[in-house]
Amino acid sequence: MPANEPDFTQLTELDRLVHEPSRLAILATLAGCQSADFQFLLNTTGLNKGNLSAHAIKLEQAGYVAVEKGFSGKLPYTLYKLTQAGRDALVLYQEQLKQMLSQLDSSAPTLNVELGLE
To answer: What is the pTM of this model?
Structure first.
């Protein structure tokens, strides 16, 4: 591959758990707050209950999200919190994407403006 050609082989190294759009939405939401309850995540991610639950379980199993279940009086609640491992995975994912995007032809200012790279 010529030196001036972008190298996107790093795409295969992205954390697929983070890269999946629904899980990325959950992680990004949790990165902006201390913790969030199930209803808040439903509202901010636009996922349905089943999808949110399934993706949250995968993130919890990976150690990216901590889940706390309990009761407030007689009402059940579920709180989600981004773990340090989840925060690290999200930061690494962001750095990898930035690095790959920086390899795009800088003579395409429209793309750079749309992606907020200028």
So the answer is: 0.80
